[in-house]
Structure formats: structure tokens, C-alpha cells
Amino acid sequence: MPRLPRKHLAPTSAQWSRRGFLKAGMLGASAALLPRLSLAASGDGQFELTAAMGKARLYGADGGLSDLWLYNDSLPGPEIRVRRGERVQVRFTNNLEEATSVHWHGIRIDNAMDGVAGLTQPAVQPGESFDYDFVVPDAGTFWYHAHTMSWNQVPRGLAGSLIVEDDDRHFPPERDLTLFLSDWRLDEDGRLELTSFGAMHDFAHAGRLGNWLTINGKSMPEIPLQKERWHRLRLINASPARILDISPERFDARVIALDGQSFETPRDVSGIIQLAPAQRMDLIVRPQKTGALPFEMMTGKPFTFATFQVAEAVEEDIPLSLPPPNPLPEPDLDDAMVLPLVMAGGAMGGMTSMMHDGTQMSPRSLMEAGMVWGFNGIAGMEGNPMFSAEKGKTIVLESRNDTAFPHAIHLHGHHFKVLARNGKALDRQDWRDTYTSEPEETVRIAFVADNPGKWLIHCHMLGHAASGMMTWFEVG
Ligand code: C2O
Ligand code: CU
Predict the structure, then answer these.
(1) Boundaries of domain holding 372
(2) CATH number, residue 230
(3) Which of 32, 50, 52, 145 shows a CA-CA span of 20 to 30 A to 95?
(4) For residue 72, how far is its CA from the centre of ligand 2 (angstroms)?
């Protein structure tokens, strides 16, 4: 995996570390188990999901109560666990004071259920409900989050995990753990900082970077593991803009899946692997001794954000067995539609004139319209799709990052193969639904456009998407 240039992370990483050293000793001690919903638990096979205002402490017992927007009054939202091929029915109710909608990130979903207000459904108005009803074709680690004014709603708490279990159970529930990672910008009292929401300065730079990380909504939690037993850790980066650097070998973990898609065999990663906003990474770990095992982010030096507490095993040992890869349609590279996806805009010299709302605009007037990023010389959504594909056609996107910042580009409704970076074919062409791109980097991806409907392509740094780095395509 490529590494992020240090300069983009350094300032706020330092903040992470300072805060941490101030109070780290006084925190911890809360086991971080997620509230769970399961189909079995609901009488009629339906989930109820309600968005409303709520409160939680993001900085441990010493921090103030933050004003948040929550699903089912829970931070993160309740974990939804289903089985591959199952039908998921969610009655969603909006008790917020503004419109919202729910997107099921990474699910190759029926277009009408994709949750993109204005493209696949009308926004759900305050006091109203919407019934989401879809089938989950792939096993893996996914998540759900607000997809109306995402830049405002997700960093206030509207997100949760969506786990699709394989046909067979490979890990018992106690050893199949979700780590839902959220970067927050906190004020001096440890409360969510509200005045800078929507700040153009953040949008034009790396996005709304925070200064503290919660795991499953907790500050520096302790997570129980069992000695000499296999565990699966499902990491989800729900941060609005922060790319997390992780070094799994530091806690003897190996990677078994990315963005929900399992590998054929576990992979050892030496050094740092990036987890960009919206990306997921599944790990396996088998602790060899009891005691504390730190879970760190690599912020120049390792910084502990959670501690695994390894205790003597209380369950029988089960030999390692891994879920098989999902059957995804293989791109036909000999008969592909090849298209450019050029990222432009942003501070530090990236701004150019671009089309917006059908007119060519100067950087200054784009700025005034709140548009600072674009794809292929167009800032923001247009009435026409970036491209239309007949169903089953292979699409190759040749992306190039002409900005001074990394981006995390997400395609709705499909998973794609990352074929090459900077013109060099990759040894491992992983399946993903979100790929990173460094400044000046080219990335070639391919997928079969087999899911009919209107689908977004956008940067998952949510401020970037809100200020222009968003387009759509249509599969007919
Ligand atoms: Cu995770 Cu368009 O979103
Ligand atoms: Cu971006």
C-alpha cells in the first residue's frame, strides 16, 4: 500500500498525542462492545432505525457531553448483523430537525435503496419515515451513514456498522469484533466543536480533521481478547476526512479482507497500511500471551487509542477457517470503456477554472459558490451523468490526482479492482469500493457496470464531496 505524505497528517497528529499524554492515564476501563440488532431479535424481520438528537461523551469520563445526532440514541448507531443473501428491512424514521437519508455503504444494492437524496430517493423530511428493503449479496464488513448533507450529519454521529456474515460462521461472536473508528474535532472541554462545521478553509484543504479518535464511540476502550484463540477484527474508518495509518504487524495481526472483500489467503503487511475514510480492513489475530496489547495509530510514532486485554481462553480452540471471497463479476479488459477521472481543485495551488451549473467559472467565483473541487473540469453534480454504460459493460477509470491533497474515491453500487498505480500493474489487484489517490498519482480501476440505476462517484472526505468532488454515472 502507498504511504501518505507525512506533511498532511503532522499537525493534528501532534494534537492527538498532546491530548493523549495529558489524560491517557485516567481514561480507559470501559469494555467496548457494540449494541447489536439482528434479524432474529426483531419479531417481524424488520429493524427500526430512528435518527434524533442525543448526547454522548467523546473524551471519556473527564470530557463534557457533546451534542450529537444519533441512530437509536446510540454512538455509533446499532450494529446491524445479517447473513449473506438475507433480505434487510429497515423502517427508518427521521426525528431530526432537517431532512436526511441512509446510505448502505459498499452493499451492491438495488438502486432505489441506495439512500442518496435527490438521486435515488427524495430526502426523508423531519417526522417522516422511509422503508429500506434490500438484499445483501456479499458477506463482509460494511457500514451505513447519513447521505444528505453528509459533511454535516456524519461528523455529528449518524453512522453505524453493517456486518454481513458468511453462510458459515468462522468466528464465534465473542471473537468477531467490530472496531468502529471515528475522528472528532473536540474543544477544550472535550466536547464536539460546532462552530467550524462547514468551514470553507477545511473543505479546501484536507477536510474536517479532528483531534481525537473514538473506537465504538468510546475513548481509549479496553477490548477483551482470549489467549491462543483466533479473533477477527473488523476495522471501519467512519471519520469525515482522516486517513488512519495502521501497522497490523505491531500486534501480530494479518489482513484478510479490504472493503468487505475477503482475500484467498491472509496477508502479512509489513509497515503501514492506510485506512482512508469509508474504507474497511478485516484482520485476524491470535494473541500469544496474556496482558495488554496496544491498538495504535501510527502518527509519526505509534499512539495507543485502545488496549486489547488478553485473558486466558474461556472458549474452545477452533482451527482457523476463513470466509471465501465473494463472487464478483470479473472485468473484461479487452472490451472496456476507458474513461479519465481527473481530480482538480483545492488549496495549495490546485484551483483552476471549472464548469459549475453549466457555466465556466473562475476560481474566485467557484469559491463564492462554495465549490473548490471537481472531476474532469466540472465542480459538483450536473444534470447529465459523467457517463452512461449499458448493463454488463466493463468500465476502466484512469484517475489522476492533480491536487495537493490525497483523496478517497468511492463508487456506489459496485466494487472495482485496483489494477495499477502510476502506470505500474499491481501484484495484488484488490477489490474495493473506495480507493485512495496521492497527489500526482494515477490509479487505474476496473469494474463491470452490472447494477442498473444512477450511482455516485465522490470523494469520501465529506467536505470535499460537498464542495464539488462528486459526480454520477448511469447504468442502463
Ligand atoms: Cu459512504 Cu456516497 O458514501
Ligand atoms: Cu477528497
Answers:
(1) 333-475
(2) 2.60.40.420
(3) 32
(4) 30
